[in-house]
Design a protein that fits this description.
The complex is a heterotetramer, with two copies of chain A (401 residues) and two copies of chain B (380 residues). Chain A has helices at 3-18, 35-38, 52-64, 82-95, 104-116, 119-130, 244-266, 270-279, 290-318, 328-349, 363-375, 385-396; strands spanning 136-139, 155-159, 162-173, 180-186, 196-202, 208-212, 222-233, 237-238, 355-357. With 401 residues, chain A is an alpha+beta fold. Chain A is globular, with a radius of gyration of 23 Å. With 380 residues, chain B is of the alpha+beta class. Chain B has three domains: 7-120, Acyl-CoA dehydrogenase/oxidase, N-terminal domain (Butyryl-Coa Dehydrogenase, subunit A, domain 1, Orthogonal Bundle), CATH 1.10.540.10; 124-230, Butyryl-CoA Dehydrogenase, subunit A, domain 2 (Beta Barrel); 233-377, Up-down Bundle (Butyryl-CoA Dehydrogenase, subunit A, domain 3), CATH 1.20.140.10. Chain B contains twelve helices and ten strands. Chain B has helices at 7-23, 27-34, 43-51, 70-82, 89-103, 106-117, 232-267, 279-307, 313-339, 341-344, 350-361, 367-378; strands at 123-126, 142-146, 149-160, 167-173, 184-190, 196-203, 209-219, 224-225, 269-270, 273-274. The longest helix of chain B has 36 residues, at 232-267. The radius of gyration of chain B is 21 Å and the shape is globular. Classes of the chains: A alpha+beta (401), B alpha+beta (380). Chains in contact: A-B, A-C, A-D, B-C, B-D, C-D. Chains B and D meet through helix 8 of B and helix 8 of D. Strand 9 of chain C pairs antiparallel with strand 6 of chain D.
């Protein structure tokens, strides 16, 4: 048996012995929480009461370094090579094992530190990330920046060995649950893109206040973060002073693709079909309203085309064609389609979509209405639809400014 | 008749606009919501509106009303719609009391309408059930005769302002099955009737409404409104006119959300310039403007047709509701998108308009339903 | 009897006696030509063989000055006051009498000359216009101007008492049938809008070549006009040298409203309904395809809304509200609606819409296909849809540049 | 299977692209039209295409063909579609000879297919009548048995390249009424058969087609293709695959019209700048690009499903035709509008693409028809 096959056997055996059965995800079942609740997000403020097995799974995997299997062992990773990492992934998939740890630490700030952090930063942060001891949030958007991220105004001024930060961040997801923030601040007002610095700080530092942002759909993980005279040591800058724009660009692509794939997967089109069958019943399981039936078919087919496009791009990537700016179409199309889908669901529900809570409505109806409202933000967050169209026009089609 | 307002109507509209601006900013419905206010509106403000004569507009003069037309009440409702004013004008004047005017006996009118006209009495119309969707014939609530009177069973939902109405006009089957045109009857039910349970509903758009449950509610013989089994025709007339009222409300709120959006386009800067200078947004704003203009024409056309008792009144009403539904949703969707992230926050007012726009769209027939009705009326 | 009532009686009697019965238009009947063929357009090249009565009617009316009833008698008009003019119009409407003369002379260049022409110009041109002796065409567009009319390049250079013109005009409707052109030329290259002059010339002048422009739909009245060293006397400038932009603006409004009302009237929506009933038959005269039925209803209702809007604006105008730039919505909406209507007609015809001529298709089918192709130009000619949206955004909504 | 082309397929596509660019610029169909050419294409160029093996792609190897798949022929058709190349590849390979491959006997295949493969024989499929619309069962042409053979009566329209086909595959009723699924039979008819009148049709999009009139045409017993009365199933299979071929053609022509439009946006100046710098046009161009990308995925998905004999092949084909129909029309409509007046002139090439886009949309089922079919296949 080759080394890699030997690894596969050992790996499978270990996983089978150590992965708690509740961490093997067969899709949503009655009594389960949502997948978001079942996953381990880690951090000092983690509440494990809903998913105690998740903590067991995290700790066991972290001990082997398999929360970040291909990172170096000295940074808390598994030290696996590419082939071994793939085998581990395959064996986890075979068991339907959930990832032992989720969040920005592993997916965003960790990789960035590996590429651009100092040796000290890597030693300080990566092991804690791998063990799920610190949870991260991202401080990019500000009330007056929006699509024009580079116009950010939170300023950092050097005072001795510390940067002193003042300003405000918005749309900080789970800032109330995070331990550290990676953040863009303005260190030079002369240069728009060239005056931005990427910096890390502890959310427990004095001067930081976090306030959740309720949305039109109700509760949301988004927060406002107020930053008042927060002192951050110089060695918490990543990638050098005034080099934050380059750091942000490296990460922004990640975020966009995550959001589009999240929305592409999350809500299945069949839900629209089932709703239409229930609320607009026709003969033999058909949808009784021919006009809506056409709309349901159109959206179902749109989803088929989107999925085919994602698959096609993936196959082309495997053949060595690097995906370029045309991936903006995923963000655009997936989010617009999701909006259309929820809009149609409301039309299907009719007056039963009018509820907020309480009497007169089914729970499922109330939920769809909330999700519909939330869906309206899909084409705003992570780069608006308009920004995606600008990118396509300029960078793919080469249309002039 | 005309598609533009005459001087009296303009005056009425201006005074309603002044009233709404001064007395009922949008912050009121937010305050009612956040304080879990049990009325969801102010009886004092309602009294002021009554003093201005608004509940009396459609009540015939012999019952203490002004005997004016749909155009007049739409002038007021549009301006209230601009600020989502929560007082029960539409529900009372165009649904509850309208059913009494349309179907009631002389005795019933004389007894009930004077209080409607002076604002002291509120009447609501209970016509929708969970499966009604947009067809008032699709009801299961039933009234069986019992001695001289009736016994009422069933449930009604989305009874606008049903939580505060003194009298409820309720549709129920005295024969037939859900969907049958025959066999629908209308009844007057006192809010305090034994066996009637009224529960306030929390709607997404903060329109005040209630669920009514009738558990063997006994009704006198004189509670029947109109002829037994023939209530659908007057009910349809009432709902149709109320639909125009709803269109007027949508007109006001759609113009308000567009004004809010235009203002944002002119003041919000990105990349160093006002975002309203981006041509793609300009064109989209222009398209909304066009829809608003066409919507106003459709609304005025429906008002004119009702007030002139025109032959094509139902077609004009369906045209208006279809158009306003599409326009209101477009203006709200586009407005939210152009506001970006801030529009998604509960703190911003645009969410109220978005919710109201789709709730109104999905009430009394959405655009597709009215297109279908229009096509049927045209015979194709 | 008041003077005006006396006038009405005489007018009615005269009209009844003099208006040929074929000039009383009851709507299209079998055997009639189109209304365009039946109208008198006048001019030296007129072919009266299809409508000899039109010539009789023109001559009789022109003799009384009633082709331009309210113009002064000295210029060939009827010298009627406003009330008399209205009465004449009412009496003509009562008889369903067709206008005795159509074309740009009466509707565009005539009114412009009355407002801005010299006394000599009025005496020279207005009587000929009133008698239908000269037909006019309009030379605005050029191959490289398009929406940006002010960028026109046909140049005029002064040589003695003549302007010498060189350049090319396109989209000159009926240039092949017209006797004179009113035309914008560049007399100053320094100033874009301020270097344009409005000038008149005879189409028979040496150096003018006219070539018809076939469209994607086949024959069209549009022509290209090539202008090579054409000598035009100075006294044929209207409104002064370098003042042409003001002249053009005065006329452009006319043209836009004419085009939108033309398209709004021309093709009735009921045609879509009738076609859908024929090609997609259902029960009891209903349209059998529920999805298309929805589209037919939507377009029918759109037309109702457009007509109501035109009526509402008209009523507001009567009450003294001057129509402003918001009339751009008519041009935009009427033409987009007309395009949608023809697009839907093609969908209703299905494969029977695929013909150009000859075998396998009905005449009516072939005609709809041609008209559909022609309709695609509606949103281009007379100011593109994009220009209309720009106007609304800027001048109605006040959005910044 | 895959949604991206393999190296052989890419090579085939590149060579077809080179061929179309060098040998068949768009000016060719204009020249054929303006000269009233009676073929509408060139036999010489067709011979060159045959020499490249294209008509042989789908013909099984035992009959002299290459035995390749739908993906391969679509590679070629797409590139020909880019220049609206008029030679009869699609009609011959995906309609006429495809019906023989699908339904023919061993004898019929051996007799007819070698000539198809080497390009010397052309076969057309006559399946549409004036009322067929998109349902091949809606036909009136009839074949009654007569002795050992058949007598054919009726009319077929829009027979692609029917004016030059040596052999015609014709659908006719041997029983039943228009719309019935049973009773459709397929026949092989020689172009010279007595009583057959072939008239070329002038289509708006310059696709070569003919009307066939059958006036008591006598057919031998061996002219029956497949089983009497059971011709609809193989016919539907053939039409479905040809639909994918048509999608490939539409893909090529939609990309061509978009490329032409992009070029115009970059070079045409108005108000002193390239019109492609106007954001409203930019966004619209980006939306077309998105549709083209989704269309390509739908096309590749349909090719893959056919070549892999997937269970959902019909759904994938309907998805592709619906998408391509909408995209092709969008790209042509927007392209024309962005070109402005010059695009309306017959002199400009964009009109050819516009006409072809809608003609292709209205052939073999438009988007709405395929959405309906998809919904039925999905059971809703």
């Amino acid at each position: 048996m080759s080394d890699i096959e030997q690894f596969r056997v050992e790996c499978a055996a270990w996983l089978d012995e150590n992965c708690p059965s509740s961490m093997r995800w067969e899709g949503p079942k009655a009594g389960d929480g949502t997948i978001g609740e079942m996953l381990a997000w880690g951090g000092r403020k983690a509440d494990w009461s809903k998913n105690p097995d998740a903590r067991v799974w995290l700790d066991r995997m972290a001990e082997k370094g398999w929360t970040a299997p291909t990172w170096a062992r000295e940074y808390g990773g598994g030290g696996l090579d590419k082939d071994e990492g793939r085998v581990l992934g395959q064996e986890m998939a075979r068991l339907k094992a959930m990832p032992p740890l989720a969040g920005f630490g592993l997916t965003m700030i960790g990789p960035l530190l590996i590429d651009h952090g100092t040796e000290e930063q890597k030693k300080r942060f990566l092991p804690e990330i791998c063990r799920g001891e610190i949870r991260w949030c991202q401080g990019y958007s500000e009330p007056n920046s929006g699509s024009d991220l580079a116009s950010l105004a939170t300023r950092a001024e050097l005072d001795g060995d510390d940067w002193v930060l003042n300003g405000q961040k918005v749309w900080t997801s789970y800032a109330d649950l995070a331990d550290w923030m990676f953040c863009l601040v303005r260190t030079d007002t002369e240069s728009k893109h060239g005056g931005i610095t990427f910096i890390l700080f502890d959310m427990d530092d004095p001067g930081i206040t976090v306030r959740p942002i309720p949305l039109i759909s109700g509760y949301s993980p988004f927060c406002e973060t107020f930053i008042e005279d927060v002192r951050v040591p110089r060695d918490q800058v990543v990638g050098g002073v005034n080099n934050g724009w380059a750091m942000a660009k490296a990460l922004l692509g990640h975020e966009r693709s995550m959001i589009s794939s999240a929305f592409s997967e999350r809500s299945s089109v069949n839900r629209v079909v089932e709703l239409a069958r229930e609320y607009l019943p026709g003969e033999d399981g058909r949808i009784g309203d021919a006009h809506r039936r056409d709309s349901v078919a159109a959206l179902t087919m749109d989803k088929v085309c989107l999925d085919l496009t994602i698959r096609r791009t993936g196959e082309a990537a495997k053949l060595g064609q690097q995906p370029g700016p045309e991936t903006s179409i995923f963000k655009y199309y997936a989010t617009e389609l999701n909006k259309d889908r929820y809009s149609l669901m409301l039309s299907v529900l009719g007056p039963q979509a009018l509820g907020w809570e309480g009497e007169g409505f089914e729970d499922g109806e109330l939920q769809i209405t909330r999700e519909w409202l939330r869906s309206r933000g899909n084409s705003i967050e992570g780069g608006t639809s308009e920004i995606q169209l600008n990118i396509i026009a300029k960078r793919v089609l080469g249309l002039p400014d | 008749m005309s598609l533009v307002l005459n001087e009296e109507q303009k005056l009425l509209k201006t005074s309603a606009a002044d009233f709404a601006r001064k007395e009922s900013p949008l912050s009121r419905i937010r305050a009612f919501r956040d304080s879990d206010d049990e009325l969801g509106f102010s009886r004092e403000l309602w009294a002021s509106m009554a003093a201005l004569g608004w509940p009396a507009i459609l009540v015939p003069e012999q019952y203490g009303g002004l005997g004016l037309g749909l155009t007049e009440i739409c002038c007021v409702i549009e301006e209230l719609g601009r600020n989502l004013v929560p007082e029960p004008l539409l529900s009372n004047a165009l649904l509850g009391s309208a059913a009494i005017i349309e179907a009631g006996s002389e005795e019933q009118k004389s007894r009930l309408l004077p209080a409607v006209a002076d604002g002291s009495g509120l009447v609501a119309l209970a016509w929708q059930e969970r499966k009604t969707r947009y067809d008032p014939a699709v009801i299961e609530a039933s009234a069986s005769s019992s001695g001289d009177g009736w016994i009422l069973e069933g449930e009604k939902v989305l009874v606008w302002d049903g939580h505060v109405a003194d009298v409820l006009v309720v549709s129920a089957r005295t024969s037939g099955a859900p969907g049958d045109h025959e066999g629908v009857s209308l009844f007057l039910v006192d809010k305090g009737a034994a066996g009637l349970k009224i529960t306030r509903q929390q709607t997404m758009d903060l329109r005040n409404a209630a669920v009514l449950r009738f558990d063997s509610v006994e009704l006198d013989s004189d509670s029947l409104l109109g002829t037994a089994g023939e209530g659908l025709a007057p009910l349809q007339v009432v709902i149709d006119r109320a639909t125009v009222g709803l269109c007027a409300e949508m007109m006001g709120s759609a113009e308000a959300v567009f004004a809010m959006t235009l203002d944002y386009l002119k003041t919000r800067e990105q990349f160093g310039v006002a975002i309203g200078s981006f041509q793609a947004l300009k064109h989209r704003a222009a398209l909304i403007f066009i829809e608003l203009e066409l919507s106003r024409s459709a609304l005025m056309g429906a008002c004119e047709a009702v007030d002139a008792s025109a032959d094509d009144v139902a077609k004009k009403i369906s045209t208006a509701k279809a158009r306003l539904s599409d326009t209101a949703v477009l203006a709200a969707y586009e407005g939210l998108q152009m506001h970006g992230g801030v529009g998604m926050t509960d703190e911003h007012d645009i969410g109220f308009y978005l919710k109201r726009a789709r709730a109104a769209e999905l009430s009394f027939g959405d655009a597709a339903w009215h297109r279908d009705r229009f096509a049927t009326l045209e015979g194709f």
